[in-house]
Input
Amino acid sequence: MATRTRVKVAPRRIPAQLLMERLADTTTTERTALQRVLGVSPLSAEDWPWYQGVLGEQEVGHELSRLPLGWHVFHSLPIGTGMSDVDHVVVGPQGVFTINAKHHRGGRVWARGMNVRVNGRRQQYVRAAQHEARGVARILADAGVVGVPVRACVAIVGARGVDAKVLPDGIDLAPASQLVRILVSRPASLSEFQADSVCAALERYSASMVPPTQAVKVHWEELHRGERESRSVRRLWSLAGGAALVTGALTLGQGAIALAGALITGLVH
Output
């Protein structure tokens, strides 16, 4: 039986590492007994986008792990002088790609040209993806790797629908589940020597970057578990409240039953 081979992942960084580090700095996993009983989330409204971002980058990282032999993946690659990174950089026979993960569970994404809308609200996803691709191209140029184009991809996680057409040159926008197919179906554009040169440049660039600490990993695991538990508790409270309404309605009569049913629908949905 042939040995099954997979994409090579750079070992120093993990998917969503920068976002996990931010959450470790801004959140606490400690909650009082009353908060746990009431299902109070450990996340504030300000933390929620970072949390959703971690889930999105992890899902895209999982998708990229399905790439075949000959591909290389770099996760959470810091870029520029601020607190920003490229979610994923992918190198393979089909070229160099930056991947920007966007998590929109249950949303609808529409894209035409530079115009991207999520549930009707305009987003600057194409412009941001182009900026990331240019940043990686500069890293390669500074390392002496020239003449290698970098293509930008926006990977949408969890959306109910993605309708993307007539995008600018050098940009892909698609569901994360289609990402691997899109990458491997492009025409080959890099020689083995070029791909090795790109990977060597990115490895040198990221050599001094700190891998995730055990504390950051543990904090994320506890935070994620706490959020899932609080969501389950809130759901139980909603169901318990609905059951109480039904009991009261049976006592008060048929007219109240209709009212209780309407209220239950509002609580659950």
Summary: The longest strand covers residues 95-103. Residues 1-5, 263-269 have pLDDT under 50 and may be disordered. The chain has eight helices and ten strands.
